[in-house]
Specification:
Blueprint: H1 2-25, H2 31-46, H3 48-58, E1 64-70, E2 79-84, H4 85-105, H5 116-135, H6 141-152, H7 155-164, H8 168-191, H9 210-228, H10 238-254, H11 257-277, H12 281-290, H13 292-295, H14 298-309, E3 317-319, E4 322-324, H15 326-344, H16 361-394, H17 398-417, H18 427-449, E5 452-453, E6 456-457, H19 459-464, H20 473-477
Antiparallel strand pairs: 1-2, 3-4, 5-6
């Protein structure tokens, strides 16, 4: 313990000395960002909890840091990459956390969870596909590296939360912080309605991304719905109803049809769930969903109907006697392009950035990582669903059960959203997604480890609690009271 304190003092002194040298050697205007960077390093080193809160509040409230073009090979030429402040935060905090955890605890920073294998397999297949693309000169190395980093940096949040959350109070506070962020984002979206433009998230640059904001809101609304439908999940539920209303208005303001479709599927799933217990309510919800174009705000109705009523224009695709608008046509072409590229590179694909830009998740995975990558992706999807379902079924605590239900609803919504968006590689959607996934995984591991077999903790689960996930039996009893998990 004394050695750890001594190391912390040395690190603080070294950072202070470095800051002093920078102040002497640099212009005054460059001191602030350098100082903030050093301060971030200190916070990340001293407090993982504080780092997580910084990440949560930066998820959709951080500015764009830099935008540039990376000239890659093949289809990557001319593709731009955008870095936001939360990208920098995530990489720096994640790296410091891994280094600190490995040094202090003398073990791997990856706590064992049901998702470790599928996550690593999915990332590894993307890396191999990209390396093959580099060797075959379809991908430029630096381009592929930065895009891979952007694609998968969000899993750092998953491992950080799983390895750091030890009490139910910590889990609740992190989720509440996410809901507070959603509150401000919803207000920002609503504030854009009078301007007549489609709402997008804060700090999106000159051209916003309403589809990204829509996907984020649908996921967060699913979490809110799960908590509302679970009595006792939070002590006060009226703020959830307020946030639900604000989030729905914000979602309408995006005019994102992919997000509307995803939200509609969530409503259908809820209707099916209510069918047995409240058979009268379910048909009413279904009728209201079908009648959305007639009762929704005029802008929303027009946007939905525009899919089939846009005046004839170049680039439209006909499906039988139905003509769809140019935006939907572009997404349909993405699927056609994906099929063509898959025929040319069926096993490993073109590599990340080796093909053209596609605003649809599934054909993009098939194009860039081939059959192997698509299989790896669906293995991860299956593992996520099994984990969420097991957590929902086994949860005894209302909070854990509500979060698990909301996660399942949000997960289904993103699977639908990904038909017309790159939902599973958009950091602003994936950061809250993997945060909640980590809370679900943590709750599941706690519940399973607390289930005795022959009077003892299950041996395979006890083995899986290593490296920061090894609670004692007294600690498990006190989980709901906020006691720590580790002895």
């Amino acid at each position: 313990m004394e050695a750890n304190k001594g190391l912390l003092i040395l690190v603080a002194l070294a950072l202070a000395a470095a800051l002093g040298m920078l102040i002497v050697s640099n212009e005054p205007t460059s001191i602030l960002p350098i100082f903030l960077g050093l301060l971030l390093l200190i916070i990340a080193f001293l407090s993982t909890t504080a780092s997580l809160y910084i990440l949560v509040f930066s998820m959709l409230l951080s500015p764009e840091f830099m935008t540039g073009d990376l000239s890659g090979g093949g289809g990557a030429a001319g593709r731009g990459i955008t870095l936001r402040f939360d990208d920098i935060l995530l990489v720096v905090i994640g790296f410091v956390w891994f280094a600190k955890r490995a040094f202090f605890k003398g073990s791997t920073p990856f706590a064992r969870t049901p998702l470790n294998g599928p996550i690593m397999f999915y990332i590894a297949m993307a890396i191999v596909a990209t390396l093959i693309g580099v060797l075959e000169e379809r991908v430029k190395g630096i381009t592929g590296f930065f895009y891979l980093l952007k694609y998968y940096e969000y899993v750092l949040i998953y491992f950080m939360v799983v390895g750091s959350v030890e009490t139910e109070k910590q889990a609740k506070n992190l989720l509440i912080a996410s809901l507070v962020t959603c509150f401000f984002v919803s207000l920002f979206a609503i504030s854009q309605i009078p301007g007549g433009e489609r709402a997008s998230a804060p700090f999106e640059g000159e051209t916003g991304e309403p589809n990204t904001l829509g996907g984020y809101l649908v996921f967060m609304l699913s979490i809110i719905t799960g908590l509302i439908l679970t009595p006792g999940s939070l002590r006060r539920q009226w703020p959830l109803y307020v946030l639900l209303v604000l989030g729905v208005i914000g979602l309408f303001a995006t005019l994102s049809r992919s997000s509307f479709l995803a939200a509609g599927v969530v409503v259908l799933v809820l209707s099916a769930r209510l069918l047995r217990r409240k058979p009268i309510i379910a048909p009413i919800i279904l009728i209201a969903l079908i009648a959305t174009p007639w009762w929704a705000p005029e802008a929303v109705s027009n946007r939905i109907l525009f899919t089939f009523t846009q005046p004839m224009d170049e680039g439209q695709i006909r499906i039988g006697n139905i003509r769809v608008d140019t935006s939907t046509s572009d997404r349909l072409r993405s699927w056609q392009q994906g099929a063509k590229y898959w025929q040319a590179h069926p096993i490993w694909g073109t590599g990340v950035t080796g093909g053209p830009f596609m605003d649809a998740m599934y054909p993009r995975i098939l194009t860039e990582t081939g059959t192997v990558g698509l299989v790896a992706f669906f293995i991860l999807i299956g593992a996520l669903f099994r984990m969420g379902w097991a957590a929902y079924r086994q949860a005894k605590d209302p909070f854990q059960r509500g979060v698990a239900m909301g996660f399942l609803l949000g997960f289904v919504s993103l699977l639908v959203h990904a038909v017309g968006a790159n939902s599973f590689i958009i950091v602003r959607i994936m950061e809250p997604f993997w945060l909640v996934a980590a809370l679900v995984a943590r709750g599941l591991t706690i519940n399973q480890a607390a289930q005795p077999v022959g009077g003892a903790v299950q041996p395979d689960l006890a083995k899986g609690m290593r490296n920061g996930m090894r609670p004692t039996v007294p600690a498990l009893r006190g989980y709901g009271a906020g006691k720590t998990m580790n002895p």
